[in-house]
Amino acid sequence: MRPHTHHARKALLAALTAGITLSVGGFGTAMAANVGSAPTEHGAAQRIAAIGNGQAKNVILFIGDGMGDSEITVARDYLHGAAGSFEGLDTIGQPSKLNDTQAATGQYTTYSVGDGIADKGKAVITPVTDSAASGSGWATGTKTYNNAIDVDTNGNPQMNLLELAKAAGKATGNVTTAEIQDATPAVLGSHSTLRSCYGPQGKSDGSSDNSAKNCEASQLLQNGGIGSISEQLLQTRADVTLGGGNKYFKQTAQAGTYQGKTLEEQAAARGYNYITDPTKLSSVTSADQNTPLIGLFSSGNMPTQYLASEATAQNPSKDAQPVQCTTNPEWLGKSGASLADMTDSAISLLSKNQQGSSNGYFLQVEGASIDKQDHNANACGQIGETDDLDKAISAALKKVDISNTLIIVTADHAHTSQIVESQPAYALSTVLKSPVDGSRIVVAYGTADTDAKNDTGGYNGGSMSHTGTQLRIAASGPGAQRVSGLTDQTDNFYTIAKTLGLASSSQEIAALSNDAKLAIAKDGQTISAQLSAFNGDASVSYQLTDPAGTSIAKSVSDSTVSGIRLNTTAITPIDLSQHLEEGKSYILTVKGLQSGVEKTISFQGPAKAASGYTPVTPSAKADGHGITSADDIGTLGTRQLGRTGTAVVAILLLMLAVGSAGGLLLAWRKGVFSK
């Protein structure tokens, strides 16, 4: 048997087994999740495979956090009357609107696979999801446990839509009325085993450090991890990021290149246009990878449009004096930063920057506090936030061409509010009077996780709960028909990825790192490795050895969130200076922790100019974290399979592309893989 043939055959058999599943689940016919088991692999929870061939230049995903059918109906009945319609929410998905024959409406399932980090690795079907697990589902195509951000059930980072859109050369945006570190915006820019790991000092304003409570220790930079959510958002580098949470940018980096600097200072050093004044949003005229925009307009979540209403125990006087909602004087819509304002600005900025105008863009917009006010049993609060989302959708429809832009409107999970006939005896409720048709609307809340009634029958803060019911999903534009019928949250990942032409299967995503490059560069007194084009990876590991194989230095590998977090589609430096001695030879190996791609380079430690060391002159700095271009020093190489193994992989990928398990078996019998 020739060298490598035995190993190639073993690899083929393993891949053949997996390939049969891939050809069914990734390329063709309808499918369903495996009943009775937890679908934990990438794409395993899809309910459909590929329907339609729609291709769009742009995709805008609107998320109403906690916006189940009941929340939509409560807001419609109050704001427009029971016989009325939303201008935006009720337009998307209707074939009779927008002259769009592709428009479609469906429902999708939202379950997670574990109820918190204690279930990491267990893969337990969990009927009621939280925003982190649900957002991870549509962002990555992979189910995970509640409280997890873009990691699988074992804690392994999964590539998300924003990272994949950047790899395809598209402009990207992330807009929310929540803190930008909150679950839904976080799933487009970070990977975290705990959703509460907001910053290097945990979930604080920087005056204290509670990272031990809010972060898994191995994820923190000082412990060799990939860093907190805020630190990763800066590395993912969306062109436009708008929302709240500026108090968390007061936190100070505890390790790494920016140790001792606040996140505000880090943003400035990386070239961001960082603004906190909502009145300045309308004056921003450009945002791109050279100068991305971060606008954080409140210390925490952004103020709601309406002042709070209080849910109370059954009381006949409420029927006689129904509530009407009043505008919150602190609502930032009065200052130019409503959700509609932010959506309008984001679309303008993304569509005219170089990448957006030529390649298109991906934008996510979240109406966050529908959920937050539902938790608070605050009917007026959730109604105002639903209205804000509807107006944001309307703003988008006025700016985009629906023939080349797919718009999807959906939610992350359902919630607790119910329209009922009369005040319930065993639940809190609010009685509203619609200002449109005068109808009496009773909204009940009965899912508090602790006793929610105080001594006078009022609400005392016991948080109302999510529910596990399926959700509405509606779409207009190219590819919209994929949302028809019953799908799963993870199907949304494939709808968006396929419509934009992004890598979506595990194999396609891993292949984005095939052209990865590794170089050694000198910038002043710093000798660093320069990593680029690891576009199928969120993080890497490295090991520095001498020619005899003795380890000199290596990255931490204690957990799935250890390693070096990559600067998405930009150069990532690894400072090697402290490990090098003058004139000595070294070998550096870098491995993509998601793709498995390895790169090696041999080089000599710094020497005096006469000894032949060629310093690299940096042409420019890329967002403050490294050199944008560098010459190789030494031999740049990749650990490869050898000719036989390479041939096997090439043939295997071709066979899988056409989904032909039978073809693989025939080729095996004809001896193709022994040649």
Automatic annotation (TrEMBL):
<keyword id="KW-1015">Disulfide bond</keyword>
<feature type="transmembrane region" description="Helical">
    <location>
        <begin position="647"/>
        <end position="668"/>
    </location>
</feature>
<keyword id="KW-0732">Signal</keyword>
<feature type="signal peptide">
    <location>
        <begin position="1"/>
        <end position="32"/>
    </location>
</feature>
<dbReference type="InterPro" id="IPR017850">
    <property type="entry name" value="Alkaline_phosphatase_core_sf"/>
</dbReference>
<keyword id="KW-0460">Magnesium</keyword>
<dbReference type="InterPro" id="IPR001952">
    <property type="entry name" value="Alkaline_phosphatase"/>
</dbReference>
<keyword id="KW-0597">Phosphoprotein</keyword>
<feature type="binding site">
    <location>
        <position position="466"/>
    </location>
    <ligand>
        <name>Zn(2+)</name>
    </ligand>
</feature>
<dbReference type="Pfam" id="PF00245">
    <property type="entry name" value="Alk_phosphatase"/>
</dbReference>
<keyword id="KW-0862">Zinc</keyword>
<dbReference type="GO" id="GO:0046872">
    <property type="term" value="F:metal ion binding"/>
</dbReference>
<keyword id="KW-0812">Transmembrane</keyword>
<feature type="active site" description="Phosphoserine intermediate">
    <location>
        <position position="131"/>
    </location>
</feature>
<feature type="binding site">
    <location>
        <position position="65"/>
    </location>
    <ligand>
        <name>Zn(2+)</name>
    </ligand>
</feature>
<feature type="binding site">
    <location>
        <position position="412"/>
    </location>
    <ligand>
        <name>Zn(2+)</name>
    </ligand>
</feature>
<feature type="binding site">
    <location>
        <position position="375"/>
    </location>
    <ligand>
        <name>Zn(2+)</name>
    </ligand>
</feature>
<dbReference type="GO" id="GO:0004035">
    <property type="term" value="F:alkaline phosphatase activity"/>
</dbReference>
<keyword id="KW-0472">Membrane</keyword>
<keyword id="KW-0378">Hydrolase</keyword>
<comment type="similarity">
    <text>Belongs to the alkaline phosphatase family.</text>
</comment>
<feature type="disulfide bond">
    <location>
        <begin position="197"/>
        <end position="215"/>
    </location>
</feature>
<feature type="binding site">
    <location>
        <position position="65"/>
    </location>
    <ligand>
        <name>Mg(2+)</name>
    </ligand>
</feature>
<feature type="binding site">
    <location>
        <position position="182"/>
    </location>
    <ligand>
        <name>Mg(2+)</name>
    </ligand>
</feature>
<keyword id="KW-0479">Metal-binding</keyword>
<feature type="binding site">
    <location>
        <position position="366"/>
    </location>
    <ligand>
        <name>Mg(2+)</name>
    </ligand>
</feature>
<feature type="binding site">
    <location>
        <position position="371"/>
    </location>
    <ligand>
        <name>Zn(2+)</name>
    </ligand>
</feature>
<feature type="binding site">
    <location>
        <position position="413"/>
    </location>
    <ligand>
        <name>Zn(2+)</name>
    </ligand>
</feature>
<keyword id="KW-1133">Transmembrane helix</keyword>
<protein>
    <submittedName>
        <fullName>Alkaline phosphatase</fullName>
        <ecNumber>3.1.3.1</ecNumber>
    </submittedName>
</protein>
<feature type="binding site">
    <location>
        <position position="184"/>
    </location>
    <ligand>
        <name>Mg(2+)</name>
    </ligand>
</feature>
